[in-house]
Structures are given as C-alpha cells and as structure tokens.
Sequence to fold (139 residues):
Amino acid sequence: MCGYKPIKHTADAGIEVWASTKEELFRQAALGMLDIIFEKNRVEKKEERELLVEGIDDEDMLVRWLSEIKYIAQHERFLPADVIVRSIRDNKIDSLLVGEKYSPEKHSYLIELKNVTYHNLKIKKTSEGKFFTTVIFDL
Fold:
C-alpha cells in the first residue's frame, strides 16, 4: 500500500507520504507535489525526460530531486503526468518524467510553489519495513 495525502501546515502546503519501498516513496512524494502545482488528470504521457539527481543523504536527495521536478514543471513548462524511479543508490536517484509541454488551452496551474523545504524532513522506515515521510512546501 502506498500513497500520499495533503496536510495542513500554517501558511505552507504539505504532504504525508507512505510506501513499501524507498523508490515508491520518492515517486509518491513527486506525484503529491505535482498535484499541488497543476491538474495532473489533464496531462497526457507524450514525452519522456530523464532526471538524475545526487544528494548527501536520502532527505537531501529527496529535496533536491523534488526541487528539480518543481523547476521543470513551473519554469520549463514540462508537466509530468507520471514519474518513474529507476533506482536509488549511492545517494543518486535515476528517474524518468513522463508527460507533455504546458499548453494554456489544455492545462491549468493551481499554485506556484516557492521551495521544497527540509522542515522536519525525515524518511522513516517502520518495523514492518514500510517507508514514511512528511514534506513541507513554501508557498
């Protein structure tokens, strides 16, 4: 079982994320963030973009990776409908973004996120082997 849900956080936005693997946890975090930025159900899977990101540890890698995806969606105007995490190892995440270029006739942005934060960010592994985290975004 994996997924995400929005959470209330003062003037910011946030998501709780859970998954059975670290790769799926990262994927769900990206999908949750993208749901905040734009309406994913209007985006078709027409193009692919590779994305490789490094970090100091899992938390740093998650923030850097989500920040890159946010930049691609908001500034390069490539909207991912799905995210495929190929691998996470040696503090590197190898992934693929699947979606299409923004079209004002078809797509609508919901909000612009300023930053992905490190605020209370900790990737936890439960005794059952599941992964859990909370991600906060500056609005």
Notes: The longest helix spans residues 58-74. The first strand starts at residue 3 and ends at 9. The chain has a mean pLDDT of 95.
